[in-house]
Amino acid sequence: MNIDEAMRLTEIMLGLAFIQQSVEHLHRPNDEKILFIPRIILSLLLIIGFQVAWVLIALVGVSLMILKRFSGPYNGGSDRMGLLILVCLTLAHLAPSHLWQEIAFGYLAMQLILSYLISGWVKIVNPAWRSGRALQDVFAFTTYPVSENLRGFAEQPKLLFVMSWCVIAFELLFPLALLNTNILVVALIIAATFHLANAFLFGLNRFFWIWLTAYPSIIWFQGNYIP
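The chain above was modelled as a monomer; its predicted structure follows.
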């Protein structure tokens, strides 16, 4: 996958993710509609590839207004990742040379790697994660729409201990997937499955779509810069 193909795929996926995030605001007050309706229109233009550089710049402007409206990224990590992808794509299109284009898009790949690595580090230094207690609390006390049957997992500490360490090990070892294309593909499938499970179990659907949107950057980076 060359950089043009990777960027085009990222643009399409970002447009779809932004539409998915924006639709829920169509039934909200008018001060939200006037932000998210233009975002949907711009996302559609991004998907079809119309004046991509200008559309990206406009999306950055709308995103800044959304940040002001909600006093920051109101959906936390998923909004931050969406803004990161948007800014990296915009800078890549505005880059004065092919080298700077690759630096801007490669930065996205590096941030994706760090998102897993840092997440694993935060967990391994946390005693609650090392003991499995953190996952117990997630199933027992979460406010997300977890069914009563799933809440029963909180009563299986041994299973949650193993699950905790599987998540920690995967996130800490994720950067090693760059060493081989096939391993990277498997790692991304596992990571996507993890995000999909979180979407179904806890309603974290935004994380699934936006993290997948960054995957073309790391596939391109591994294919072009790792021997």
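The chain has a mean pLDDT of 89.
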